[in-house]
Amino acid sequence: MEKKRRDFMGLGLGLFTAAGGIGALYAMKRTWDPLPSVKAAGFTTIDLAGAQANVLTVEKWRGKPIFVLKKTADMKADDRDIVMGADRFHVSIGLCTHLGCIPAYEGEQHKFMCACHGGEFDASGHQIFGPPPSPLEIPPFKIDGTKLVLGEEGPEFKKMKDAGLIA
Ligand code: FES
After folding, report:
1. Which tens digit of pLDDT belongs to each residue from 55-88?
2. Average pLDDT, whole number, for the chain?
3. Going by CA atoms, what residue is nearest to atom 1 of ligand 1?
4. Are the CB atoms for 103 and 114 separated by under 8 Å?
5. Of all helices (H) and strands (E), which one includes residue 93?
6. Is 145 left (phi over 0), alpha (psi -120 to 50) or beta?
């Protein structure tokens, strides 16, 4: 009788310890997992299906402005273009590579103009005038149908990177 009672108490204590252990593991996992807001900040999906040619859209990714420009048929094609079917897009981080101001897009001239020190970039993001030392930076991206997933390195991005086109 005494042995049975001890076995029962031992089992109870074991279960109690196991439950506590599982609870502690769960609490630790919750502590280590990134917050939902952090997870959501890592990737941004932009649907390019409705984009209008020569109209700049500015999205936000990881706190930075992202330029998305659908090129018109008469704009020069560039190796840095993102090609989706028959459409070509210029996508870049919208920060001047000189000192980080946000350039404005002048649609009639097909140029990005930086008001801070007069830097200019063409519609493919190449610096064409003034102090900017390098082209507008291309963020890591993946093409998913008509969508662009920013923050993920897809094959098209890796190809650009391997070709030395990513500033
Ligand atoms: S920050 Fe753009 S030209 Fe200086």
Report:
1. 999 999 999 999 999 999 999 999 999 999 899 9
2. 86
3. 99
4. yes
5. strand 87-93
6. left
Nearest-angstrom CA–CA distance, 65 and 57: 10
Q: For the sheet containing 44-47, what is the strand order?
A: 44-47, 147-150, 141-144
pLDDT tops 60 at residue 8: no
Distance (angstroms) between ligand 1 centre and the Cα of 83 equals 28
With a 6 Å cutoff on the Cβ, whether 98 touches ligand 1 is yes
Distance 100 CA to ligand 1 centre (A): 6
Model pTM above 0.85:
no
Where is pLDDT greater, at 40 or 102? Answer: 102
- 86 contacts 102 by C-beta, under 8 angstroms: no
| Strand-strand pairing, 120-122 and 127-129 | antiparallel
Q: pLDDT category, 12, cuts 50, 70, 90?
A: low
Q: Is pLDDT above 80 for 39? A: no
Taking the C-alpha atoms of residue 125 and residue 47, their distance in angstroms, rounded to an integer, is 21
b/e sequence 35-47, b meaning 16+ C-beta within 10 Å: eeeeeeeeebebe
DSSP code for 44? E
Question: How many angstroms is it from 45 CA to the middle of ligand 1?
Answer: 28
